[in-house]
């Protein structure tokens, strides 16, 4: 389970201020719990861990088994934002760091992602890969109308149909979308694809514990039951209406720090497998809180890697940063640094220590240095990187985000700002209905476009 340590914030805040924000967090929690706040029709994520039936995971395992029997080795998971980041985060965190070069794990499929950009090179290279592999696809879009996944799916569908024929294609395509609305629903019904539903009351960035996250995780060979078990434990702990609730503490402290001018929060990890936890977290908090001219700007760094690129700024640049470190108590592997009789590199002082001990000392040294440099430190810790702890982290952050956004006074569950670029892109691409916008926009384009 996720533990929280706020002692690294003590030099930056008064105890009385924290008490005040804890009260605000408790009020915000009650609004979430009683479902009386803005966006209260998007609270379906709250009980997913405890209410998801076992049989759903069984259905995902059946698809994996069927595809493996049919010789499929690669699954293209198509989606953007909340429709891919959770699965990407979990699969990256659970996979061998060199998985693609180590070869496919037994009883699993190689999951690759598409539909999260509009790069022609990326999609052409995806087709290169698909030519060498036996492919199936999972296309995910709640609205069923998002351009990036729709473009990728059109290309992937065309490839699969050409290669395997229409009938086999309908067995190799699974769609996850709305139960009745959107182009993807219509297409799935027409073509006879298997589908799973994203319920109306779960927003994209809160959907990792629905089929959106769980199906790709199962296909990649990881244990979705354990993921849900970890999330269920967090559901219990984060549903306490007391100040022991870690989600409440986190939400209270980050808002207090924000009120004191710490406008940017860095999510820090000392394990490269957690890089995509930062990406998932940025979407969750950025899209939920960044509105009405308010919101902590979420960014992420990986240490010690980024201490050699961003370290100078963090230590010594403008003092608007706070850090939240996701600390992992135990590595999954053990590796000791060997003794070298010649000691030409001068490293014998750490010989016989585990690499993880060096990493831990780097973490502690960084924490103290950054406190001295004026960067408040929130520390979250989990026992290890595995399905259970990832599930806990997902739920912990979702609950913290809901509470935090209500403290800030914004609706955590809408994203009106995301529409602005889409409107312009449609107009510039000549979508019917956007003609007048297109004329106005073309006048504003820089020379060369
Ligand atoms: O959190 C959100 O709602 C968004 O990030 C969406 O997940 C993203 O825009 C993709 O939308 P859709 O699943 O409708 O294609």
Automatic annotation (TrEMBL):
<dbReference type="GO" id="GO:0006096">
    <property type="term" value="P:glycolytic process"/>
</dbReference>
<dbReference type="GO" id="GO:0097367">
    <property type="term" value="F:carbohydrate derivative binding"/>
</dbReference>
<dbReference type="InterPro" id="IPR018189">
    <property type="entry name" value="Phosphoglucose_isomerase_CS"/>
</dbReference>
<dbReference type="GO" id="GO:0006094">
    <property type="term" value="P:gluconeogenesis"/>
</dbReference>
<dbReference type="GO" id="GO:0004347">
    <property type="term" value="F:glucose-6-phosphate isomerase activity"/>
</dbReference>
<keyword id="KW-0413">Isomerase</keyword>
<dbReference type="InterPro" id="IPR035476">
    <property type="entry name" value="SIS_PGI_1"/>
</dbReference>
<dbReference type="Pfam" id="PF00342">
    <property type="entry name" value="PGI"/>
</dbReference>
<dbReference type="GO" id="GO:0005829">
    <property type="term" value="C:cytosol"/>
</dbReference>
<feature type="active site">
    <location>
        <position position="422"/>
    </location>
</feature>
<keyword id="KW-0963">Cytoplasm</keyword>
<dbReference type="InterPro" id="IPR046348">
    <property type="entry name" value="SIS_dom_sf"/>
</dbReference>
<keyword id="KW-0312">Gluconeogenesis</keyword>
<comment type="function">
    <text>Catalyzes the reversible isomerization of glucose-6-phosphate to fructose-6-phosphate.</text>
</comment>
<feature type="active site" description="Proton donor">
    <location>
        <position position="287"/>
    </location>
</feature>
<comment type="similarity">
    <text>Belongs to the GPI family.</text>
</comment>
<keyword id="KW-0324">Glycolysis</keyword>
<comment type="pathway">
    <text>Carbohydrate degradation; glycolysis; D-glyceraldehyde 3-phosphate and glycerone phosphate from D-glucose: step 2/4.</text>
</comment>
<comment type="pathway">
    <text>Carbohydrate biosynthesis; gluconeogenesis.</text>
</comment>
<dbReference type="InterPro" id="IPR001672">
    <property type="entry name" value="G6P_Isomerase"/>
</dbReference>
<dbReference type="InterPro" id="IPR035482">
    <property type="entry name" value="SIS_PGI_2"/>
</dbReference>
<dbReference type="GO" id="GO:0048029">
    <property type="term" value="F:monosaccharide binding"/>
</dbReference>
<dbReference type="GO" id="GO:0051156">
    <property type="term" value="P:glucose 6-phosphate metabolic process"/>
</dbReference>
<protein>
    <recommendedName>
        <fullName>Glucose-6-phosphate isomerase</fullName>
        <ecNumber>5.3.1.9</ecNumber>
    </recommendedName>
</protein>
């Amino acid at each position: 389970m996720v533990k929280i340590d706020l002692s690294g914030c003590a030099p930056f805040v008064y105890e009385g201020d924290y008490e005040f924000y804890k009260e605000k967090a408790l009020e915000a929690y009650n609004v979430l719990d009683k479902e009386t706040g803005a966006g209260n029709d998007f609270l379906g994520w709250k009980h997913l861990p405890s209410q998801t039936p076992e049989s759903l995971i069984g259905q995902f395992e059946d698809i994996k088994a069927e595809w493996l029997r049919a010789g499929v080795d690669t699954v293209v998971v198509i989606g953007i934002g909340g429709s891919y980041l959770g699965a990407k985060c979990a699969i990256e965190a659970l996979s061998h760091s060199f998985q693609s070069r180590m070869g496919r794990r037994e009883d699993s499929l190689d999951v690759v992602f598409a539909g999260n950009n509009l790069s022609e090179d990326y999609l052409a290279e995806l087709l290169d890969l698909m030519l060498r592999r036996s492919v199936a696809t999972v296309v995910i879009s709640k609205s069923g109308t998002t351009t990036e996944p729709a473009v990728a799916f059109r290309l992937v569908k065309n490839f699969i149909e050409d290669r395997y024929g229409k009938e086999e294609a309908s067995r190799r395509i699974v769609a996850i979308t709305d139960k009745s609305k959107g182009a993807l629903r219509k297409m799935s019904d027409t073509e006879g694809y298997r589908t799973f539903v994203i319920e109306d009351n779960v927003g994209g960035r809160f959907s990792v514990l629905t089929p959106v996250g769980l199906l790709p995780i199962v296909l990649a060979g990881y244990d979705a039951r354990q993921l849900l078990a970890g999330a269920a434990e967090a559901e219990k702990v984060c549903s306490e209406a007391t100040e022991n609730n870690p989600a409440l503490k986190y939400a209270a402290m980050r808002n207090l720090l924000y009120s004191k001018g710490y406008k940017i929060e860095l999510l820090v990890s000392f394990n490269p497998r957690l890089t995509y936890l930062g990406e998932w977290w940025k979407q969750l908090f950025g899209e939920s809180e960044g509105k009405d001219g308010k919101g902590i700007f979420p960014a992420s760094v990986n240490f010690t890697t980024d201490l050699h690129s961003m370290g100078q700024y963090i230590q010594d640049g403008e003092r608007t940063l706070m850090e939240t470190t996701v600390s992992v108590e135990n590595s999954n592997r053990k590796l000791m640094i060997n003794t070298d009789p010649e000691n030409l590199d001068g490293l014998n002082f750490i010989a016989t220590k585990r690499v993880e001990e060096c990493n831990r000392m780097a973490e502690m040294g960084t924490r103290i240095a950054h406190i001295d440099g004026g960067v408040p430190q929130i520390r979250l810790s989990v026992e290890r990187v595995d399905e259970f702890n990832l599930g806990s982290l997902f739920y912990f952050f979702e609950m913290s985000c809901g509470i935090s956004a209500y403290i800030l006074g914004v609706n955590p569950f809408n994203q009106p700002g995301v529409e602005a670029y889409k409107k312009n892109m449609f107009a510039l691409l000549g979508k019917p209905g956007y003609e007048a916008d297109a004329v106005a926009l073309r006048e504003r384009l820089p020379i060369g476009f």
